[in-house]
């Protein structure tokens, strides 16, 4: 079986969670004997050599609509992984916590799809390949494009049951779907000796891009309160690239906090194979994002025996009672969750969770889907 995986146009240059999903799923599928090619363009004549076309990403991007359209034009079965966020959570974020030029869309439009269309105009100004798709979306309607993508797909792969429910609630369309959970990287599964990354022992860690939706400023406020109220000499470690181009005001505010508080440690990038050690020696791993599809960094923490704080109902579908949960808009909520996990016993995950959330399992379930529609 030969599979073509198609992603957004900047997949290779910008990276992101969808690239992690694509790369890891493809790698495990290849171990199962499946030929997999990964690309970002569907304006091609070689569709004929593929048995399945697997398209990734619904939210915010323009080009994946044309990937599905072109695949169907060649009569190919389409598997679609929308990686769809909760529109309710995205709108709440845009209503309450946007910075820099994003404030403009908040005041001009109440409808989230119109806001996203305006954001795509901004993206198209810096990428000429997106101009034609953007103009098409203005005429067609961004939401209408999403509806057609779901209708054209032979089967939709969701990461959580809540994702399927959100898709149906938002777009009012029926489609066939299968839940395929994401996994942690193999480096979190290998039994290795962890290497201590710092010469201090008490720290809280947050891994992810420095941008508004990841909520680093409120995490800083919560940790400051934890230090002051409990007289703790706890450090706060951030690992992730700064989204300076897209979130310049937020990154500036983050930099101010770095200068103000010497107990904040910022590292732009760490070799992936070393990340488990950074998590393992932390007291708590925190993700206080305004919205996520699942929240895999919390799973990363739990898999190496570190307590976790997460946000949202989708994270609860994965993590259940093995983490504490906070509201991203409330400093005190983040503080209370951190306080609880800081003093809690370290977690021990049962074998069913460990076996479920792996890329090997994700690939096996994906292959079952491929075989069912081939």
Shape: globular
Number of domains: 2
Strand neighbour order, sheet with most strands: 2-1-3-4-5-6
Tally of alpha and pi helices: 17
Largest sheet: 6 strands, parallel
Instruction: Kindly estimate the percentage of residues that lie in beta strands according to DSSP.
Output: 5-15%
Poorly predicted runs of 5 or more residues: none
Observed structural traits:
374 residues, alpha/beta, Rossmann fold, 2 domains, 17 helices
Structure explained in plain terms:
The protein has 374 residues and is α/β, with parallel strands linked by helices. It has two domains: 2-85 and 140-181 and 359-373, 3-Layer(aba) Sandwich (Rossmann fold); 186-356, Rossmann fold, CATH 3.40.50.2000. It is built from 17 helices and twelve strands. The protein has a six-stranded parallel beta sheet, with helices on both faces. Helix 10 packs across helix 15 (331-342). Residues 201-310 form the Glycosyl transferase family domain.
Task: Provide a compact summary of the structure.
With 374 residues, the protein is of the alpha/beta class. Helices cover 47% and strands 14% of the residues.
Q: Secondary structure elements and their pairing?
A:
Blueprint lengths: L1 E5 L4 H4 L2 H15 L3 E5 L12 E5 L6 H11 L4 E4 L5 H10 L5 H7 L3 H15 L4 H10 L1 H11 L2 E4 L2 H11 L5 E3 L23 E5 L8 H15 L4 E5 L8 H13 L3 E4 L7 H6 L3 E3 L9 H8 L3 E5 L1 H7 L4 E3 L4 H12 L8 H6 L2 H15 L1
Helix pairs in contact: 2-17, 3-8, 5-6, 6-7, 10-15
